Amino acid sequence: MSLSEILPTVSQLSHQDKLRLIHFLLLEVAKEEGCSLEPVADTQTQSTLLNQLSSTEAVVWSPQTDNQAVQALSDMLLTAQEANNA
């Protein structure tokens, strides 16, 4: 089943079911990455999981930290402003 087939159904879910789906997907992706995010009682296992998570890299991009993106947005705003004033 493809994503385009699933999305219309997902959009019809209740808010609570969407949150459950997010939780389910998070757990599934973690399993695929070799991590388990299920609650654990064993503190040794918990510590190992935290070490795995802390060694995982995440890249967060924002146009606020990208000079080219800031310039492009500024240029677009100026162009739109000039078009409105003309």
Descriptive labels:
mainly alpha; 4 helices
Question: Can you offer a commentary on this structure?
Answer:
This protein is mostly helical. The chain has one domain. Helix content is 67%, strand content 0%. The chain has helices spanning 3-11, 15-32, 43-54, 67-85. It starts with a helix and ends with a helix.
Count of DSSP-assigned helices: 4
Kindly name the structural category.
mainly alpha
- Uncertain parts: none
The largest pleated sheet is described as: none
Please specify the SSE layout and strand pairing:
Blueprint (H helix, E strand, L loop, with lengths): L2 H9 L3 H18 L10 H12 L12 H19 L1
Q: Summary?
A:
With 86 residues, the chain is mainly alpha-helical. The chain has one domain. It is 67% helix and 0% strand.
